[in-house]
């Protein structure tokens, strides 16, 4: 009886005892300001960091907010549409996810979103142009505006997400605007970390899902375009890891682990979803651009733009990855394909085993 009472008392005392802080609970910012973590690591902990994620309602943004919220970070999530940010509220403990309305053209709203943060992520991007926002207005002017206001407000760190194929000489206006944004950010905020991921796949992606629905658009260039797809979870984890690391004042490339052709990815989608391989015709580039422009002006919802057609003919850059710097090992697309493509199977084939197509041998051209 006495032994049982003693064990109960010990358990009660352990539950009441506050968690002890250690040396690892302390992070010193570049300004020498301390950030102290509290509580048992997890959803209800307090990491001590206050973060703003511009572009939090997008594909990559939702996963970054989730990973930050799981470690007890207070995250400010700027939004434009009330319905686009509701799911983010559940990604952190009570009061840890702070939604604020913003417009990329409003300096006052940008300052309100980031003035209390010690690290700012800029994930804002747009695959197509509209009458209100061109590629340059979003990826260059908007990025420069965020960088300038972050600098004026004394933000410690800025992480700017660009694209692996960003280049001043690209035939794609999207890639040229991405490069212009990088240069303007580095000019204004020299300490910024530039992240260059390749095309990403996941639950809401525009790669595997799009190939399953509209394979004709991926047969451009005879499906021989080479890409380096990367899992959105890996990129989000890499971005989250940067928060606890020392400031990295350079560009980090985050491509997928393998270079694959659109032809192989179409075969992968067909094999995993147990659908026949697409027999859609291959459209010439000029005809595809004309059709994309015509359809884009005929409907109000986003469709394939002429610049996206151009991007379907551009191979991903062969730049080596910097995954070791961010402490992440990228995973192969075959490991996750069934997770995102099972929904396209028929009821009869829903639980059938997965058969993956063999990878073709890629012969590198002699220089």
TrEMBL record:
Domain of life: Eukaryota
Entry's Gene Ontology cellular component terms: mitochondrion
Protein name from the UniProt record: NAD-dependent epimerase/dehydratase domain-containing protein
GO molecular function, one term: protein-containing complex binding
All residue ranges annotated as the NAD-dependent epimerase/dehydratase domain in the record: 51-163
Lineage of origin: Eukaryota, Fungi, Dikarya, Basidiomycota, Agaricomycotina
């Amino acid at each position: 009886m006495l032994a049982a009472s003693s064990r109960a008392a010990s358990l009660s005392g352990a539950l009441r005892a506050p968690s002890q802080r250690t040396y690892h609970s302390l992070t010193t910012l570049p300004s020498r300001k301390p950030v102290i973590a509290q509580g048992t690591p997890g959803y209800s902990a307090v990491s001590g960091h206050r973060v703003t994620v511009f572009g939090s309602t997008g594909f990559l943004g939702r996963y970054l907010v989730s990973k930050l919220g799981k470690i007890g970070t207070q995250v400010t999530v700027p939004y434009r549409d009330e319905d686009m940010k509701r799911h983010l509220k559940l990604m952190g403990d009570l009061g840890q996810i702070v939604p604020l309305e913003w417009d990329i053209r409003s300096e006052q709203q940008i300052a309100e979103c980031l003035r209390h943060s010690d690290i700012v992520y800029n994930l804002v991007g747009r695959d197509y142009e509209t009458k209100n926002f061109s590629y340059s207005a979003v990826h260059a002017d908007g990025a420069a505006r965020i960088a300038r206001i972050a600098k004026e407000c004394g933000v410690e760190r800025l992480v700017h997400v660009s694209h692996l194929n960003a280049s001043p000489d690209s035939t794609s206006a999207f890639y040229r605007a991405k490069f212009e944004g990088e240069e303007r950010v580095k000019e204004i905020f020299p300490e910024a970390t530039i992240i260059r991921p390749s095309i990403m796949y996941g639950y809401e992606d525009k790669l595997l899902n799009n190939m399953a629905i509209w394979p004709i658009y991926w047969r451009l260039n005879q499906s021989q375009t080479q890409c380096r797809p990367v899992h959105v979870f890996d990129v989000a984890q890499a971005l989250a890891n940067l928060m606890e690391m020392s400031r990295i004042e350079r560009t980090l490339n985050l491509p997928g682990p393998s270079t694959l052709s659109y032809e192989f990815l179409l075969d992968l989608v067909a094999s995993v979803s147990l659908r026949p391989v697409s027999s859609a015709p291959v459209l010439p580039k000029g005809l595809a651009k004309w059709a994309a422009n015509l359809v884009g002006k005929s409907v109000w919802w986003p469709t394939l733009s002429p610049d996206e057609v151009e991007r379907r003919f551009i191979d991903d850059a062969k730049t080596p990855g910097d995954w070791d710097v961010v402490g992440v090992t990228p995973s192969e697309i075959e490991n996750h394909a069934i997770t995102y493509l099972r929904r396209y199977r028929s009821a009869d084939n829903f639980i059938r085993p997965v058969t993956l197509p063999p990878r073709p041998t890629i012969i590198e051209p002699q220089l």
